[in-house]
TrEMBL record:
GO terms for cellular component: plasma membrane. It is a multi-pass membrane protein. Residues 95-304 form the ABC transmembrane type-1 domain. The keyword Transmembrane helix applies. It comes from Rhizobium straminoryzae. This is ABC transporter permease. It comes from the Bacteria. PANTHER family: DIPEPTIDE TRANSPORT SYSTEM PERMEASE PROTEIN DPPB-RELATED. The chain crosses the membrane at residues 9-27, 97-118, 130-155, 167-190, 235-257, 285-307. Keywords: Cell membrane, Membrane, Transmembrane, Transmembrane helix, Transport. InterPro entries: BPD_transp_1_N (IPR045621), MetI-like (IPR000515), MetI-like_sf (IPR035906).
């Protein structure tokens, strides 16, 4: 098992290096010059050339990539062209909003999807199954940002129960911060809950037809006990896979929802950096998103070994 983990870690490192090279090359191909964006179109050629030299933009691509990668490995992500502060601090500050938002959304998704999926599998073609299918179709079809707008109209404008946007900060109180994140978390969670419900239903249906579940029923276990004690635990592998993918999607895909609710999260930072042509911030944020996806895939692989003893037995 240790050898497997070492091999996966080596693959993770190689993949990250390849991804970082692609990200840097693609960012360099984007139209526009950061120095020109900072100085404006009226800047003189001498001033523009001096700023390009100061920013290191006159050096070859390979030299700039190696310097950037060396800085990243040392924890130095560079300084933002727009804000004039270290990018690492910007990312850390925005993660204090985006990570709790994603965690709350994942919690809502799990609470909704897994019970619905299990009950839909247990009552196949019954009322629960029809309701769960309808919920899945509607939640997947409706865009998250549109759900967010509807939630603002209902719970903020009409009822006045929750804030319509903004983030007071954790220093202003945990309760106020969580209230500000609740509506955007629901908007993010509903589409993911629809997908997770389908995966859970399919996985449980497949396991319920296995011999060990029928044997458990034959030994006198109730349908409910056989379902939750034997069928559901053995159906968790595809569910865990989907949860890992959903968490990375919620971190990286919250751009629209964060803009709808005016949340100072990582997705909004990426959007602002793109509009301001802040290449340093863009490439660092994209690298962070990519590293998160790769790391989550690695953790999901490890979770397989913990969930399914058959996989541990097969590891050499």
């Amino acid at each position: 098992m240790i050898a497997l983990i070492v091999r996966r870690l080596a693959g993770l490192i190689v993949t990250l290096l390849l991804v970082s090279a692609v990200i840097f090359a693609v960012m360099d191909l984007l139209p526009g010059d950061p120095a020109s964006v900072i100085l404006g179109t009226s800047a003189s050629p001498d001033t523009l050339a001096a700023l390009q030299k100061e920013m290191g933009l006159d050096r070859p691509l390979a030299v700039r990539y190696v310097a950037w990668l060396a800085g990243v490995l040392q924890g130095d992500f560079g300084r933002s062209y727009t804000y004039g502060v270290p990018v690492a601090g910007l990312i850390a500050e925005r993660l204090s909003v985006t990570v709790p938002l994603a965690l709350i959304a994942i919690l809502i998704s799990v609470v909704l999807a897994i019970p619905l999926g299990v009950q839909a599998a247990r009552h196949q073609n019954g009322g629960w199954d029809v309701f769960s299918g309808l919920f899945s179709h509607v939640s997947i079809a409706v865009p998250a940002f549109w759900v967010g707008l509807l939630l603002i109209i209902l719970f903020s404008t009409t009822l006045g129960w929750l804030p319509a946007g903004g983030f007071p900060g954790w220093a202003g109180g945990v309760g106020a911060a969580l209230m500000a994140l609740l509506l955007p978390a629901v908007a993010l969670a509903l589409p993911q809950a629809g997908v997770l419900m389908r995966v859970t239903r399919s996985a449980v249906l497949e396991v319920m037809n296995e011999d060990f579940v029928r044997t458990a029923r034959a030994k006198g276990l109730s349908e409910q006990t056989a379902l939750w004690r034997h069928a559901v635990p053995n159906a968790l592998i595809p569910v865990v896979t989907m949860l890992g993918l959903q968490f990375t999607f919620l971190i990286a895909g919250a751009v629209l929802v964060e803009n709808v609710f005016n949340l100072p999260g990582l997705g909004r930072l990426a959007y602002q950096a793109l509009s301001q042509r802040d290449v340093v911030v863009m490439q660092d944020v994209v690298l962070f998103f990519s590293a998160l996806v790769i790391l989550m895939n690695f953790l999901v692989d490890l979770a397989y070994l913990l969930i399914d003893p058959r996989l541990r037995a097969g590891v050499r």
